[in-house]
């Protein structure tokens, strides 16, 4: 079982292609299924600690994995039952079924309520092949079994999810929520995008030897999408000075607090010099250099990145400031109000790096609703705008115009509080000032630090606390 950061994310079609490549290279579906099922059995056995396991098997290869897992557990002397939704349909699943010599109960109808329950439930009903909503009582029965069980584990994916979008095919609350999902061979979008990610519980990867790791396969060869890994951040060199550490300028507006938060976060994320272009009164921290806005305020080559949008307002003065920022040759983070004033045609004229940080509402206003997954939406928006797009939320996606994209995993839902987006904008600006030629990497590093800072707070917090937790998160990256 492997952790899931820095791993490729493959669609169902990309997964099939990887499987076909492995088969062309001499593997067989049966050998891959054997490896998958044995991997599942090993994980289940360790976690079940001797408790009875009920394996629910579907008609396809996901069910095949389940039969192999059940047979492997039984051979090891572990108490295990099997219940199936129909007979296996594929040759590989039929061969796997033949390994299981015990009785097969029928699922869901044949399981009387009490007999059905087991302390450990394994969902091997549907995986990447599910193309339509779960029929009849399957979803409801699975929910009942999973919620009764002390431990419920999904094989590859919780049954009922759309692999490529993470949506519940039968609509909200139609699938069971598991404690653990064992992703087979590679992560799929449903493991990282909501609501699928929540239904998965913890996600761990089981390697099937498909050669999908980044050492065997360069990123674009198998998938353009990867989960965000902990960034490496360099300590200041002995010869570093405040400007070489990264200078961030935050453009303020009538709502001072938002830009103050962005400026504070920029410092806490490691910038050497942060200035706030504000008409507000001096306040803490005194380290923030406050200057009045002027039309040439961004004509300073030392500025590594500027932030515009938090608390900017949407009046003519805000428009004027945004136009100056767009015309400047400094790398730019565009957030909040500025996203509502933004003209995409004007943005495409910019040569310097630009990072847009919309939440779902800002994203829809700028780019429309779009088709497909959140990853596909972010990729299309990056292509359309020519900028790096950070599509925020519980499953933040960072995409660059050529299609490469990163997805955040494990963001704390306590981030759903005012001002945390301003903290993210400031954090990304510092990363961008330090990596002006790698805006996607900078944005993803900022998203990682932001999520790590929230994890360190472990509970309810306000945006100021989050900014102040950034140095600890940074310490995890040195
Ligand atoms: N990739 C790899 O390298 C490896 C992949 N492996 C495993 O294979 C899994 C993918 O297997 P899969 O393609 O057979 O699909 P799966 O998810 O079992 O379901 C398809 C079956 O369900 C049926 N069906 C669909 N919807 C239905 C509904 N609502 N209600 C009822 N039935 C429905 C559908 O019927 P049909 O649509 O054809 O009528 C078909 O029979 C993958 O997740 C992983 O676990 C490993 O074994 C080894 C290596
Ligand atoms: N439920 C959630 N789970 C995880 N992260 C969240 C959640 N809600 C919001 N966030 C994160 O918190 C930040 C909120 O940003 P934003 O919506 O712009 O808020 P604000 O404008 O108040 O600063 C984003 O980074 C977003 O990804
Ligand atoms: K499953």
TrEMBL record:
Gene (UniProt): nnrE
Matches recorded under NCBIfam families: yjeF_cterm, yjeF_nterm
Domain YjeF C-terminal: start-end pairs: 225-477
Cofactor note: Binds 1 potassium ion per subunit.
Amino acids binding K(+): 62, 123, 159
GO MF entries: ADP-dependent NAD(P)H-hydrate dehydratase activity; ATP binding; metal ion binding; NAD(P)HX epimerase activity
Cited PANTHER family: ATP-DEPENDENT (S)-NAD(P)H-HYDRATE DEHYDRATASE, ATP-DEPENDENT (S)-NAD(P)H-HYDRATE DEHYDRATASE FAMILY MEMBER
Lineage top rank: taxon: Bacteria
Descriptive protein name: Bifunctional NAD(P)H-hydrate repair enzyme
Binding site for AMP: 392-396, 421
Family to which the UniProt record says this protein belongs: In the N-terminal section; belongs to the NnrE/AIBP family. Belongs to the NnrD/CARKD family.
Catalytic activity: (6R)-NADPHX = (6S)-NADPHX; (6S)-NADPHX + ADP = AMP + phosphate + NADPH + H(+); (6S)-NADHX + ADP = AMP + phosphate + NADH + H(+); (6R)-NADHX = (6S)-NADHX
Ranges of residues in domain YjeF N-terminal: 15-216
Keyword annotations of the record: ATP-binding, Isomerase, Lyase, Metal-binding, Multifunctional enzyme, NAD, NADP, Nucleotide-binding, Potassium
Pfam families, alphabetized: Carb_kinase, YjeF_N
GO biological process, one term: nicotinamide nucleotide metabolic process
EC number: 4.2.1.136, 5.1.99.6
Residues engaged in binding (6S)-NADPHX: 61-65, 127-133, 156, 258, 311, 359, 422
Subunit structure: Homotetramer.
Native source organism of the sequence: Sphingomonas aracearum
């Amino acid at each position: 079982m492997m952790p899931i950061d820095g791993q490729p994310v493959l669609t169902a079609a990309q997964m099939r292609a990887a499987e076909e490549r492995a088969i062309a290279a001499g593997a067989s579906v049966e050998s891959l299924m054997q490896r998958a099922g044995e991997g599942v059995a090993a994980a289940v056995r360790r976690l079940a600690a001797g408790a009875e396991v009920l394996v629910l098997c579907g008609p396809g290869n996901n069910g095949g994995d389940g039969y192999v897992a059940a047979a492997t557990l039984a051979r090891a002397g572990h108490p295990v039952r099997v219940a199936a939704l129909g007979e296996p349909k594929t040759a590989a699943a039929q061969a796997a079924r033949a390994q299981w010599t015990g009785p097969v109960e029928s699922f869901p109808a044949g399981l009387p309520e009490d007999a059905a329950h087991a302390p450990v439930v394994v969902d091997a009903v549907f995986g990447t092949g599910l193309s339509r909503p779960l029929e009849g009582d399957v979803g409801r029965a699975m929910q009942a079994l999973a919620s009764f069980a002390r431990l419920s584990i999904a094989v590859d994916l919780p049954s009922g999810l759309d692999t490529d979008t993470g949506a519940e095919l039968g609509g909200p609350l139609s699938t069971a929520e598991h404690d653990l999902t064992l992703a087979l061979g590679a992560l799929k979008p449903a493991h990282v995008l909501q609501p699928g990610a929540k239904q998965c519980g913890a996600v761990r990867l089981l390697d099937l030897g498909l050669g999908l790791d980044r050492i065997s396969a360069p990123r674009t060869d198998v998938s353009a999408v990867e989960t965000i890994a902990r960034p490496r951040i360099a300590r200041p060199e002995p010869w570093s000075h405040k400007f070489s550490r990264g200078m961030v300028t935050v453009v303020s507006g009538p709502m001072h607090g938002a830009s103050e938060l962005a400026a504070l976060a920029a410092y806490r994320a490691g910038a050497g010099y942060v200035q706030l272009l504000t008409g507000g009164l001096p306040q803490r921290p005194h380290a923030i250099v406050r200057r009045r806005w002027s039309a040439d305020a961004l004509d300073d080559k030392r500025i590594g990145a500027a932030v515009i949008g938090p608390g900017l307002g949407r009046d003519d003065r805000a428009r004027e400031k945004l136009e100056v920022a767009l015309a400047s040759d400094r790398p730019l983070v565009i957030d909040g109000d500025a996203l509502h004033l933004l003209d995409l045609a004007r943005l495409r004229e910019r040569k310097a790096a630009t990072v847009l940080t919309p939440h779902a509402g800002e994203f829809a206003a700028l780019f429309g609703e779009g088709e497909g997954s959140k990853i596909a939406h972010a990729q299309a928006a990056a292509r359309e705008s020519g900028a790096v797009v950070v599509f925020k939320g519980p499953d933040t996606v960072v995409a660059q115009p050529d299609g490469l994209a990163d997805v955040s995993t494990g963001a704390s839902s306590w981030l759903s509080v005012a001002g945390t987006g301003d903290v993210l904008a400031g954090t990304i600006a510092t990363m961008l000032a330090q990596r002006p030629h790698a805006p996607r990497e900078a944005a993803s590093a900022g998203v990682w630090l932001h999520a790590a800072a929230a994890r360190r707070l472990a509970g309810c917090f306000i945006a100021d606390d989050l900014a102040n937790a950034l140095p600890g998160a940074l310490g995890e990256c040195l």
